[in-house]
Amino acid sequence: MNKIRWKDECVTLSERQIYLANMRFEETDEWKTRPVVVVKSRGDTCSVMEITSRPASYESDVKILDLMCTGLNRESVIQTKKRRRIYKSSLRTYLGVLSHHDMRRVENVARLCQ
Fold first, then answer.
1. At the top level of CATH, which class does the domain 2-112 belong to?
2. How many CB atoms lie under 10 A from the CB of residue 44?
3. Which residue among 35, 52, 83, 109 is least crowded, i.e. fewest CB within 10 A of its CB?
4. Which pLDDT value is given to residue 3?
5. Backbone torsions φ then ψ of 97, nearest 5 degrees
């Protein structure tokens, strides 16, 4: 696990954690703050999947069933096709954690949709 600094606190970054992150649009230089779930952490980067409150549009989208500990305030979907590597410095606000059950579902769908 990797530790990152947040407002004079040391936070351990690990899989399943949900953050608000500054995400850059691929086709432009614009940024938007989006919720993401950490999938893997290495060095000064981490692999994340974007989360949206829009209904599932693709077979690869996974609805979050256990919202209680996520810190999200509405029904949400993890977009497994939107897996990206970002710098840890792009992570802004810790929201919560994805349940083990939901993470297993995300991993299974991501594996099947590769």
1. mainly beta
2. 10
3. 52
4. 52
5. -140, 145
pTM of the model: 0.85
Residue 48: other Cβ atoms inside 10 A: 26
In tens, the pLDDT along 3-49 reads 554 444 455 778 999 999 998 877 777 888 999 999 999 889 999 99
Burial of 65 per CB tally in 10 Å (0-12, 13-18, 19+): exposed
Extract the tokens encoding 81. Answer: 């096709």
Q: For residue 56, what are the CA distances in angstroms to 42, 63, 78? A: 29, 7, 8
Q: Please, which residues bridge with residue 97 across strands?
A: 17
Would you kindly state where each structural domain of the chain is located, as residue ranges?
2-112
The percent helix, strand, coil of the chain (3-state, each to 5) is 15, 50, 35
How far apart CA 54 and CA 44 sit, in angstroms, is 30
Residues 31, 99, 108: CA angle, nearest 5 degrees? 80
